[in-house]
Write a structure and sequence with these properties.
The chain is of the alpha/beta class and 212 residues long. It has eight helices and twelve strands.
Length: 212
């Protein structure tokens, strides 16, 4: 059973945590207001640990970063020594101008900024290109939603893909970390379609071949 540390307990963190718990993972939330989060955990996460970020990720096999992009570096900095950890960055650097606009840091993506700021951490981009509704339930009309992962470390990506598959996603390797920018832009497209595009939030991307 994997131990999954989750930094953040908003809609995204709780949704991913519930999927991980359903896959028999031990879930550990790292948050600032421990008492408030404990009081509001749904029954599906009753067994989850809730504590300070450093306590939540210390023994985690994989760490999911599920906070606003603007807070990502500060939250990771508060998590203590992450050397050797695999951090899956589910954040999206956006601003809103009559719809979502990609707003990456100068490194080119939020994942690249994390990798630059924390050189001892293995960063994988993923779980970011759909909303909490899909993170909570990846089942779609014709199969599971695709969860795409970009990173430079093959073993770290394999761990993220294995976790995503256990959580019910159709997981796929999306190439090196430079492709994190493409996944963040894919998130912009999803948000646009789901909001101002009028498609609603119960949508996800799938990769399908032609019928034989």
């Amino acid at each position: 059973m994997a131990t999954v540390g989750i930094l953040g307990a908003g809609n995204v963190g709780l949704a991913l945590g519930a999927r991980a718990a359903a896959a028999n993972c031990a879930v550990r939330f790292g948050v600032r207001d421990v008492a408030a989060v404990r009081a509001e955990l749904p029954a599906t996460l009753a067994a989850a640990f809730v504590g300070a970020p450093a306590d939540a990720v210390r023994d985690a096999d994989i760490v999911l970063l599920a906070v606003p992009a603007a807070a990502a570096l500060a939250v990771l900095g508060a998590a203590g020594d992450l050397t050797g950890k695999t951090v899956v960055d589910a954040t999206n650097p956006l601003r809103w101008e009559a719809g979502p606009v990609w707003n990456p840091p100068h490194e080119g993506s939020m994942a690249a900024a994390i990798a630059a700021a924390f050189p001892g951490v293995t960063v994988v981009k993923g779980f970011n290109h759909f909303g909490a509704e899909i993170q909570a339930d990846p089942g779609m009309a014709h199969g599971a939603a695709e969860a795409l992962f970009a990173g430079d470390d093959a073993d770290a990506k394999a761990r993220a893909i294995t976790l995503a598959q256990a959580m019910g996603f159709a997981a796929r390797d999306a190439g090196p970390l430079r492709n994190a920018a493409a996944l963040e832009q894919l998130a912009v497209l999803w948000i646009h379609l789901a909001t101002v595009g009028g498609a609603g939030r119960q949508i996800a991307f799938r990769i399908e071949g032609r019928a034989s």
